[in-house]
Amino acid sequence: MNDFDRSPRVVVFSQGGAYRSCRITPDKYVAARFVSELADAWKAYAETGSLSTRSVIMQASVIRSAADFLDSESDRFLTMEGDTAALAHRLHDWESAMVLKFPPPSVRAKDLGMLLRNNVARFLESKDIEGGVLAAWANSLVLDGRPSEAVPLDEFSNDERLQLEHACRNIIRAAEERLVRGDEFLRQGRDPRKHGWDQLENLLWAMRYLPYEETFCAHLAGRRRQLDPYDIERISGVQQPTGGDRRPLLLRAAGAFLAPDAEFLLAIRVLLHLQTGWAPEESTTLKLADIEFGNSSVRVKATKLRASRIRWYTLTSPQDGPWGWKAGDLLRRAHHAMRHARALAPDEDLFWLASISAARDRRPTEYPSYVMRAQNFNQPNTLNALIRRHGLSISQPHDMRRLRKTVKSARAALLGTLSGAAGDDQSIEVFRGHYAQTTTVHTIAAQTVLRAQGKVLDRAKNGPALINVSASEVGKIDNDPELAQLASHVANETDVEQQLTLAACRNPYDAPFMASGSLCHASPSMCLQCRNAVVFRDHLPRLVVYREALDAIEKDLSPIVFSEVYGQQRVNLDAIIAEFPEQDVAVAREQDVTLHRSLGQRAEL
Hints:
Distance between the termini: 83 Å
Helix content: 40-55%
Low-confidence stretches: 426-431, 599-605
Oligomer: single chain
Number of helices: 27
């Protein structure tokens, strides 16, 4: 190995952060050659991948962990360009040792194995090394000591869903009020190079319209700084995490008036998923080109990884507002809130933009400690962090995938079928293994059976009564005055009344379809399902005509809809007609009867 291979690999961080650099020194370890190869892949990715300082340091610590373990004399000859089988065995030994050192429920061993695999895969790709044992190891699942099948995620309860909605709406309202105030400051601001850096309005004006120059540093971070970050935080109501006794950064404090923070974007996403039931990646990977803002709607191109499908959604939303909490409105609110962030980072193609404290690719014209970059919603901008910060009482795990489960379970409950939980975006295999285990969906089958049983019983006891005698004959009966009066009314019906009724009604103010005491407006469409209906022989011609009307309606409706709306009526109607002799039915068909269906078509609503 030459001196270059043994030389330290150093990644230098941008100015303004707590760390100046991070290094890996291969010569300190027995497996120096292998460590130098890992360090090359680490440094190349750190310089081209726009990693945060924390990510660079964390990946370096993983390489050091493996290097400390590979301390046998034989490890001196390990290399990713040589005997990869021996190296894969040693990496397996290291990973097994990490599982023993960090047993479940810790995920440290899982993270170590995943990150080292990524570095190995990057080196193999850079050298165009394909196949082999080491490549298979890099593409294998991590060895983290956990069961092969995790406990399925359940949905959030209704109370938990309401807590999330309430908290996220408050976050969005507060951020939008702060941005409106920031716009007022911008309108009042002037060039601080002429009018001074001692006013928040001028500072915001510079951050928005002036490219950064090194001469600004003295006014923003040095002794000549004339604005106190604590005062700005009190005005904005946003406290930036600083750690220890360090003072908050001036630009971070002022920037709260200029662009939304990552928590605002996460709150938008939470509400968006509760509205749509999307998978987490469908919103995380949204690009600006994937969203089309129209006059009355927002079209979104969403990619779902599990089903390997790309779909376009059309979300209703007015262009000029006012915007509410529907899915399209949420995207418009986010786009409007990020307008200044978009202007400060015009080259970013992802939709979600937020400020970060440091970036390795910060341009000289960008302000230190306030750089606009695409938001990836990793730590600390996760659902778990949001719930913890706002003290919500939400059950574990705090996973974005549970939002999708919540929506799917609600749909299943509303539709009353298990298929309602899966929708049209999953195969039956995925549906059986992914949705059917939620608590709500587990009860759907039993609830459906109970509802069906109750429906059948209600219809059986609430159907019309048939008196296969003419109304004029029943009207002469003295032992039942109420029935005799009802029959007399039918016998004396006018032509108009005969055209508007299918049966007599014992009490039009006690209909099962209306509030008690109110007049029934469901006649005649619901009479054949009503307990108050009484059918005499006089009604037979009208019933035959109504049977023909139902046959005509059936041709225009789908079988499922017709069965749900008119199915029981036709069953009751056929049962009534079957009680009459065939010759009487034939005579009724020949009569010239007109039946007008009134405006109150309750059965069709």
